[in-house]
Each structure stands twice: as structure tokens, then as C-alpha cells.
Amino acid sequence: MSHLEERLEHDLTEIRDHIASMGSEVEQSLEGAFNALKTANDKLAFKTILSDLPINRHMRKIDRLCHAFIAIHLPSAGHLRLISSVIRANIILERIGDYAVTIAREAVQLGIEPEGYMADELKKVSAEAMAVLSEAISAFNSSNAERARHAITMARQVEHEMDGIYASLLEKGDSDGGCGRDTMIYLIIFSQLKRVADQAKNLAEEAIFIETGETKAPKTYRILFVDEDNSCLGPMAGSIAQKAFHEQGQFTTGGVHPADSLDSDMVAFMQGRSFDLTEVTPRSLDTSREALSEYHVIVGLNQKVQKAVGKIPFRTSALNWKKLEQPADGDAQAWENLYRNLALQIRELMTLLRGDENQ
After folding, report:
1. Average predicted confidence (pLDDT) for the chain
2. What CATH code would you report for 221-358?
């Protein structure tokens, strides 16, 4: 092995050792924050807060090492993938350290040991978030794509569970006449726990990139179109969206009071534009929290979403597209205008969600 090769391996090992050490520091910081929260231990909380300072210094050192490595060795292929992933992982771990600080600060503000439902959920979700992070860090340190994919699956489970917790907290706030101080603190803490799982998932994706070169798959957005009877506007919007953006989104429709069949004029118009609606029937709107929380965006088509579904899930966004009217019988120009209006608004929505490069 030449001197340059020895220097390269030495520098790579140093970078790997530092990022592994930083990962361990972040895990310890999170564990300290959780323990401080569960036991109302102010001393431990402040120790956790101050421990973020060495983590930040470690982050800056790793950043310097990575940029020096690029300048000296001009890496390519696998080495370049590794260094670029370490730079991103460095930022991810620093952010998780910040989440630990926020949890510790909120623990001090809370000032009491959580009890009952909150104590049970905090114990469960914090353990799951720590497990996801530990698995992601191990996958990254060993460049193990299989373990990384397992960590991603674990993170998605945490995300799914958070919907129910958010709903319970908001319902408690409503029953108490508005979100009280403790409820707000718990909302903040649980949001930090979710972010830990999200960032662990990002770290796992970097581990996959190191080993395989696979980049993160583009996100597919789930969109629900809501109308009154699902005989015209919803099926029309869903068909337009599905044809134009089938690779970027999953589109569903539902009506508040579903009709028995589709509007015949709408079917004829869409068939004239080469849309096949033979398998489409009016669908009833499922307003359960579990069903609605599956969607990233709910669009009201001349039907206000909040009125149609009640409470919007915590992670779901609602849009109300007004001035959409079902044309009168035989009004060909009105059908054409409606089609163009829907197509334009759908394109604008998908551009907002995915960007111009995905069109």
C-alpha cells in the first residue's frame, strides 16, 4: 500500500470513528432527556442541555475533517458517497441533539413526573424512538443496508402511532376548554420524539446510499378529493390527477352523500377525452380519524373540507377549491372550462408538493 493510500485509509478511519462517537453522544443525550422527563429530574435535564455543547463542537470538527478529506484526496465513487453521507449524517445527528435539548427544557418546565396515559405513551414512544435511532446509527456505522431498511420500517411505525397521540392530546385540550400549559408541553415533547424518528429514518437512508448508491425514493403523496355526492366533481378530478400524475401521487375520492351512479354527461365528456370510467362508482366518504390520517392533502371540491370531515388530522393539510360547479345539461363549453380548471389546480398542487422537475 502506497503512502497516499495509507493516508486515505487513516483519514477515513478517523472520520468514521468521529461520526460513530458523535452518534453515541447523541444517544446518551436523548436517554438523559427522557430520564429527566420521566423522573422530573432538573439536575439531569440541565446536564443534558449543557451536553449539547460538546456535540456541537464534535459536529464542527467532523465537518472540517470531511472537507479536508475532499480537498486532499479528491474522492470518487464509494469514498465520495461515504464522505457526502457523513456530512449529511453529521447534520442529522446535531439536529437530534437539539431535540434532546428541547425535551430536557420542556421537562424542566413541566416540573412533575408524567402520570397515567401520558406516562405510558411517553415510555412507549421514547423507547421506540431510541430503538429506531440506535438501529439507524448501527446501520450507518456498519454501512448495512438491510439494517437500515429495518430502521426505516420502525420509523414509519412510530409515525403512524403519533397520529393517535396527537388526536388524544388535542381532544384533551378541547375537553379542558382549550390547550392548557401541560398539554402544550406534551405536544412539544411528542413532536420532538417524532422528529427523532424522522431523522433516524434519514440517517438510515444515508446508510443505504453508502452501500448501494441508492438515493431516497421520491415521496408519493396521497390526495383525497371530497365533494357532495361523488357523481361528478370528485371522480372527474381523480381521473385527471391519476392520468397526469400516477407516478407522483395516489388519488382517492369520496362524497358526503354518495349518489347511486355517476353523472352521465360527465362520463360522456370524459370518454370523449379518452378517460375510461367504467370501473368508477360513487364512493362514500370515510371520516374516521384513521382513514383521514392516511392522506397528505384533502381537497374540497365546492365542499368545505372542515364541514365534510370534521377535525383535520394533525399531519394532514386541507384545501378548498371554490367556484367549481357541475355544468348544466348540454353545456359543452362549461364542461370544457371545468376540466381545464381542475387540470390547472391539480397541476399547481402537484408542482407545490413535488416541484417542477417531476412534471
Report:
1. 92
2. 3.40.50.2300
DSSP string covering 139-152: HHHHT-HHHHHHHH
Stated as kind and residue range, the H or E segment containing 351 is helix 332-354
Could you report the per-residue pLDDT of 159-218, keeping only the tens digit for each?
Answer: 888 877 887 777 765 665 555 788 889 989 999 999 999 999 999 999 999 999 988 878
H or E stretch including 98?
helix 77-110
- Rg of the chain on CA atoms, in Å: 25
Q: Classify domain 3-212 by CATH number.
A: 1.20.58.220
CA distance 330 to 23: 66
Rounded alpha-carbon distances, angstroms, from residue 116 to 119, 160, 309: 5, 21, 30
- Judge if pTM exceeds 0.85: no
| Structural domain spans, the chain | 3-212, 221-358
Query: How many residues would you count in the chain?
Result: 359
Residue 57 cell numbers, joined: 463542537
- Render 154-207 in DSSP notation, one character per residue: HHHHHHHHHHHHHHHHHHHHHHTTS--HHHHHHHHHHHHHHHHHHHHHHHHHHH
Measured distance CA(313)–CA(316) in Å, rounded: 5
- 297-301: strand order across its sheet: 249-255, 221-227, 297-301, 317-321
- Angle subtended at Cα 180 by Cα 102 and Cα 155, rounded to the nearest 5 degrees: 45
Query: Are 3-212 and 221-358 equal in CATH topology?
Result: no
- Backbone dihedral angles phi then psi of residue 178, each to the nearest 5 degrees: 125, 155
HEC profile of 71-85:
HHHCCCHHHHHHHHH
* Calpha distance 189→179 (Å, rounded): 14
- C-alpha grid cell for residue 213? 448508491
Rounded distance between C-alpha atoms, residue 89 and residue 93, angstroms: 6
What kind and span of H or E run contains 252?
Answer: strand 249-255
Segment holding 153, helix H or strand E: helix 145-175
Please state, as a whole number, how many other Cβ atoms lie within 10 Å of the Cβ of residue 313. Answer: 21
